[in-house]
């Protein structure tokens, strides 16, 4: 198995002494999106991060964070999470033989992500409060030295996640003109900016956030106070980028479009980048990459609630043909 760390060792904070904890992350597809490209008048590609081992982009950073934690002699890791970080931390901690403690805001995590973390052996604790309060508690416990924090405040996480920018450049042969992605805590946007800057070509960054951050249907970006707001602002200024605030209806419209027009089934939050592209002026014929951050099976309730119900039919060809029209 060729791990992400093996592939980009010279550009990551590791040494020959770092034990590699990997599940085969990275090298995710960059998919052409021909139907949406025609409508937007650009050459659109989808960076499909749902193809990572636990179904989200978090695995890129987690392989580096857990590997470095093992190198430092850690016995336990901790994170606050709206779901994807929890699943990834649980998987990589299990791979490394570490204890994983997950703090989740009460009632705010999609069942697919929660099931992953629990099945992988994490100690899942439901905090009576918001994500921001859970993160504050995780940081406080980490400061005691008993647990390593593996949220994106851990710089190793961002270094791992920046590798997606390297992959995009390699596949396209150059940086895209525009990169669009969801904006929750801002760690991923910060990481992409870092990767493109290291490659000496920063595209225009377009970030899609929910208008109602605390209550949005897009649970993975249900974060009231972005931890990386300052670095996001710097990256947007450097790239002449923009944050687009989106109603849930716009995010869900983009979610349906990705599924029905391009065959990419993602969780609702992952469509925020595409929804943001709908609201900005794009140079005709320009090369645009939209980061699709997590698989649709992460949030099965939303998929079931927002999709048509099955139609009951008799096992008869005529009835099936009629119902199929």
Describe the SSE topology.
Elements: H1 4-7, E1 30-32, H2 34-40, E2 43-48, H3 58-71, E3 76-80, H4 84-96, E4 99-105, H5 111-119, E5 123-127, H6 131-143, E6 148-149, H7 155-161, H8 163-172, E7 178-182, H9 187-198, E8 204-210, H10 229-239, E9 242-246, H11 248-262, H12 272-277, E10 287-292, H13 300-306, H14 317-324
Parallel strand pairs: 2-10, 3-4, 3-6, 4-5, 7-8, 7-10, 8-9
Antiparallel strand pairs: 1-2
Question: For the record, what CATH class of the largest domain applies?
Answer: Alpha Beta
Order of helices and strands: HEHEHEHEHEHEHHEHEHEHHEHH
Q: What number is the mean pLDDT?
A: 94
The main sheet orders its strands as 1-2-10-7-8-9
- Here the CATH topology of the largest domain equals Rossmann fold
Q: What portion of residues is helical?
A: 40-55%
Q: Say how many strands there are.
A: 10
Please give the oligomerization state of what you see. Answer: single chain
Rg, rounded, reads 20 Å
Largest sheet: 6 strands, mixed
| CATH architecture heading of the largest domain | 3-Layer(aba) Sandwich
Low-confidence spans = none
How many domains? The number is 2
């Amino acid at each position: 198995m060729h791990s992400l760390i093996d592939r980009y060792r010279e550009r990551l904070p590791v040494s020959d002494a770092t034990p590699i904890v990997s599940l085969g992350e990275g090298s995710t597809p960059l998919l052409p999106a021909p139907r949406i490209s025609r409508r937007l008048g650009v050459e659109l590609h989808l960076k499909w991060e749902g193809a990572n081992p636990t179904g989200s982009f978090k695995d890129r950073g987690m392989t580096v964070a857990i590997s470095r934690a093992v190198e430092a002699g850690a016995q336990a890791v901790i994170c606050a999470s709206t779901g994807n970080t929890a699943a990834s931390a649980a998987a990589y901690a299990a791979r490394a033989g570490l204890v994983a403690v997950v703090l989740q805001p009460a009632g705010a995590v999609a069942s697919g992500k929660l099931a992953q973390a629990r099945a992988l052996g994490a100690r899942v604790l439901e905090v009576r409060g918001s994500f921001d309060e859970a993160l504050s508690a995780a940081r406080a416990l980490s400061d005691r030295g008993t647990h390593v924090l593996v949220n994106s405040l851990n710089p190793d996480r961002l270094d791992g996640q920046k590798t997606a920018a390297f992959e995009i450049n390699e596949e396209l042969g150059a940086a895209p003109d525009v990169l669009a992605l969801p904006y929750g805590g801002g760690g991923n946007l910060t990481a992409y900016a870092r990767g493109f800057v290291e490659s000496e070509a920063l595209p225009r960054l377009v970030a899609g956030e929910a208008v109602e951050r605390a209550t949005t249907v897009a649970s993975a970006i249900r974060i009231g106070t972005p931890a990386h707001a300052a670095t996001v602002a710097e990256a947007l200024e450097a790239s002449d980028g923009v944050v687009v605030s989106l109603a849930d209806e716009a995010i869900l419209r983009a979610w349906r479009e990705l599924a029905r027009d391009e065959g990419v089934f993602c969780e609702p939050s992952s469509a925020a980048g595409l929804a943001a592209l709908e609201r900005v002026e794009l140079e005709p014929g320009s090369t645009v990459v939209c980061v699709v951050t997590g698989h649709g099976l992460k949030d099965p309730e939303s998929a079931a609630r927002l999709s048509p119900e099955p139609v009951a039919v008799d096992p008869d060809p005529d009835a099936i043909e009629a119902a199929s029209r």
